[in-house]
Amino acid sequence: MAAIRLRKNQRIELLRDVQLFSGCSTAELGRIASLTTEHLVKAGQVLTERGDPGLEFFVIIDGKAKATRKGVHLATLGPGSFFGELALLDGGKRTATVVAETDMRLLVLSRREFNGLDRAAPSVSRKMLVELGSRLRTADEKLDPAPSFGKRVGPWSL
pLDDT, tens digit, for every residue of 76-86? Predict the structure, then answer.
């Protein structure tokens, strides 16, 4: 895979098409784009390992990866897909294992860079939280298709 570096405006357009950032302004996308770095990885490389500390977030430019949790296939990720966003928000452990299925080109944003972005443009974090909630619900449904929501109390469930 040839290493063709994206210019900032190309990164902005790539990030605009990423669902996680679809609600961001051009100025917010510009800030994010300026903080990312490009990385090339080979097929078979483990990009994240469930339980490991999460220090960065990834956006796929080219290639495919597979996300699993406890042996359950969660998703096949391709160009425009992202993963590792939870690590940016809480600095906790990885919730899924992601392995490159093909050679890949990625944009990477470290937690340290994200913290600076969060101070300068906190609206980005709020937009990420909405998408994160949706992804967690989807993963939960795959792992437990008929969850028990507990005891009913009044018109809501706990």
Answer: 999 999 998 88
Confidence of residue 128 (pLDDT cuts 50, 70, 90): confident
Cα 106–Cα 112–Cα 116 angle in degrees, nearest 5? 105
Burial class of residue 146, CB neighbours in 10 A (0-12, 13-18, 19+): exposed
3-state secondary structure of 146: coil
Mention every residue, 6+ apart, whose C-beta is less than 8 A from residue 92. Answer: 53, 54, 86
Residue 41: Cβ within 10 Å count: 19
Give the number of other Cβ atoms within 10 Å of residue 142's Cβ.
13
Stronger pLDDT, 8 or 128, i.e. the higher one:
8
Q: How far apart are CA 68 and CA 46, in angstroms?
A: 11
Instruction: Looking at the chain, list the stretches that DSSP marks H as alpha helix, in order from N- to C-terminal side.
Output: 8-16, 26-35, 85-90, 111-120, 123-143
What is the chain's percent helix, strand, coil content, to nearest 5?
Answer: 35, 30, 35
pLDDT in tens, 3-16: 568 888 899 999 99
Burial 95-118 (b: 16+ CB within 10 A, else e): bbbbbbeeebbbbbbbbebbeebb
